[in-house]
Design goal:
This protein is mostly helical and 183 residues long. The protein has one domain. 74% of the residues lie in helices and 0% in strands. The longest helix has 39 residues. It starts with 10 loop residues before the first helix and ends with a helix.
Length: 183
């Protein structure tokens, strides 16, 4: 192939490609904002925990159970934030280079956009489950329409997660078949 046959890259296209590639860094402040939100959840958790411990003798067993479920809810939302912060940054912005770090989360070694979606869907189902359990424990105080819509939303999360998992399975199987035909 001679020099004339080599396609020349348009300099303005090269600059645009670099700009598009570097635009991923615009997401970094978003992840930093989520870290701040994580701090707010830590503050909320500690405030609720102190309230639970300090006034435990004034609460009924049901009230304590609802407060503990509230604490679990905060933890699950914090876990969701961590998955989005670490997984999203690693997937869409830049590598964290944690290969040898002893505290690297196990799930991070095989994270991609699809696994992130499924993990986030599972986290949302967990959070929704906690809210639904709180609703059922406190059902006599709740409006039937509220209970109905919480169940519908929860079931929608479950169906969506199953649909994503099936889609992921089909896509992975199709890719495996395509690779098998190449070899």
């Amino acid at each position: 192939m001679s020099m004339q046959d080599t396609p020349q890259r348009n300099p303005s296209l090269a600059v645009m490609a670099q700009l598009i590639f570097w635009s991923r860094w615009l997401q970094a402040p978003l992840y930093l904002g989520l870290i701040v939100a994580q701090g707010v959840y830590v503050f909320l958790f500690l405030k609720e925990l102190i309230h639970l411990v300090a006034d435990a003798n004034t609460f009924t067993e049901t009230q304590i159970m609802l407060m503990v479920l509230g604490l679990i809810d905060v933890v699950m939302i914090a876990n969701l934030l961590i998955m989005v912060i670490i997984g999203g940054y690693e997937t869409f912005v830049s590598r964290l280079n944690l290969k040898e770090h002893p505290d690297q989360p196990q799930w991070l070694s095989h994270v991609n956009a699809t696994t992130m979606k499924i993990k986030l869907a599972m986290a949302l189902i967990g959070i929704s489950s906690i809210h639904l359990l709180k609703t059922f424990i406190n059902a006599e105080q709740m409006d039937n329409d509220t209970i109905y819509w919480q169940v519908v939303i929860h079931l929608t999360f479950i169906v969506s997660a199953i649909a994503m998992a099936i889609t992921d399975y089909i896509m992975n199987k199709s890719i495996a078949v395509a690779h098998a035909h190449e070899h």
